[in-house]
Predict the 3D structure of the following.
Amino acid sequence: MAQTRKASRYIVPVAVAGVAAATIGLVPALAASGDPDLPEITAQQLIEKIAASDTQTLSGTFRISTDLGLPLDGLTSALGGVGGGGPSSADPSERLTQLVSGSHTLRVAADGPERQKLTLLDGSDEYSLIHNGDDVWAYDSKSNEVFHEKAPAGADAHAPQEKELPGTPKQLADEVLKAAGDTTSITVDGTAKVAGRDAYQLLIKPKQSGSTVESVKIAVDAANGTPLKFTLASVEGGKPVVDAGFTKVDFSKPAASDFTFKAPEGAKVTEGGAEKAAEEAAGEKGDPFGGQLPGGLEDAFGGFGPGAGSDKGGVNVIGEGWTTIAKIDTGAPAPKTDEAPKEFQGLLDSFGDKVTGAFGSGTVFKTKIVNALLTDDGKVYVGAVTKDALVDAANAGK
C-alpha cells in the first residue's frame, strides 16, 4: 500500500505530459493521390459548407496514426504496475487509449445520434464499441469480455446545449472567422482525393510565435461538406501528430443489425455502474486523488487554442489564442524525481527537462503538442506552447 501511495504522486506529471491525447479530436483523415479539379471556393464558403452538412448516416474503414512524441510503451508499463486489479479489458476508457500511439485500422458505422459502432481491428482480434439507444456495449474478442453501460433513467440525450450555436451556416462561419481574429490564418489549400471522394482542404495555421501547433488541415467532402481529413502537425516536424484517414466510406444508411449486440456464450459481462462504484471505493482507500487530477488540471486541458478564455474553473488562463497557458497552483511542493519508484524514474527523465529561471527551478514535461512546466514549489504551467514560452510565463510571475 505504501508503494502504491508513493507511486501515485508521480502519476500527476506523467498525466500532464500525456494530456496531448485529450486535445486531439479523432476526425478521420488520409488523402489519396490525385488532386481533383473543383470550382474555386473561399475559406468562409468552405466553413459554411461544413456547417450546413447534415450527414446522419455513414459506414467505412479508416486508419489512424498518432505520434505524440511520448514513450507510451514505458508509460503504459509503469502505470499498469501501480495499484493492481484494474477494470474490464473491454472498458472503452481503457481500450481506446491505445489510439494515442501507433497506427490502427477501424471500421465505423453511424445511423443518426442514437446508433454508432466502432470496431478496432488488431490482427485476428477485434474490439467493438456499440451505442444503440440507451445502451452502450463493448466487446473484446481476445479476452471474451463484455462491458455494458446503460444511460441513467430519465436522462435526456437530446437536451439543449447550454450555449446556443449560431442559427445559420453563414452565422457560424462568421463566428469562426471572427474568433480566429489576428491569431489565426484560415485558407483553402487546394483539393485532395479522400477514399475516392473529391475534397477541399481547409488549412488553419497560428500566426502567433511560441505555439507548438504548425498547422491543422481538414479535408471537406466537396459534395456534402462532411469532414474527411484531419492532419495535425507540430512545429517539431517529422510525422504528423495525428494522421487518420478513411480508406473507404459510404454515406448510405447502415443495416439495423449492425448496431445489435448479444453477449457471446461464456463471456464475462461487466456492468459500468458497478465498476464505477468499485473504482470510487478503491480511490477513497488507495488513491489520494480519488481518480481525479488535483488543482484543476482536468479543467485546464480543454482551454487551449484560439478562443480560450481568461479564467475558467479556478484555473488562471494566461494569454490568448494558440499561445494560451493555464496556470494551476497545486499548493504543495512537487515530488522529487529521485524519490520516485524505479519504474517511473527512467520514464520521467526520458520526457522531462530540468529548467531554471527567475521563478526558481522545475521540470518541463514534453509532448509534440502539449507541454507542461511543473515548478518545484508546486505550480503548473501547461499549454500547446514551447518550453521557452512556459518558462517565460513562469518568470513573469503571472
About this structure: The chain is about 20% helix and 35% strand. The CA atoms of residues 337 and 345 lie 6 Å apart. The radius of gyration is 22 Å. The chain has a mean pLDDT of 75.
